[in-house]
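Is this the right way to post structure tokens for a design question? Let me know if I should format differently. Anyway, here goes:
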């Protein structure tokens, strides 16, 4: 599967894209920004190496698949769907 950095290289994700996680059960919308290295930066400046690491942080340290919960704000697509689509083109 492609990493965030690879998704940037193939044009699926853009540097500066905002990722959102609508946590309906908590009444909160989390946001992250994608940097040029494929890292994710939170509003408070924390840097995460993957969508899953970021999601775990916002989920109180409980593991969760970040690829499934984060969406690209400009397209509303889940990262998991984008990654699966572009992974097929790399085979």
């Amino acid at each position: 599967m492609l990493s965030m950095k690879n998704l940037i290289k193939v044009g699926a994700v853009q540097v500066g894209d905002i990722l959102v996680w609508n946590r309906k059960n908590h009444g909160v919308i989390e946001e992250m920004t994608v940097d040029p290295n494929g890292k994710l930066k939170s509003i408070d400046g924390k840097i995460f190496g993957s969508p899953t690491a970021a999601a775990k942080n916002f989920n109180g340290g409980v593991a969760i698949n970040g690829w499934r919960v984060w969406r690209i704000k400009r397209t509303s697509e889940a990262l998991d769907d984008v990654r699966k689509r572009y992974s097929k083109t790399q085979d």
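Format looks fine. Someone answered above. Worth noting: Strands lie at 18-23, 28-34, 40-42, 47-48, 71-72. Residues 79-90 form the longest helix (12 residues).
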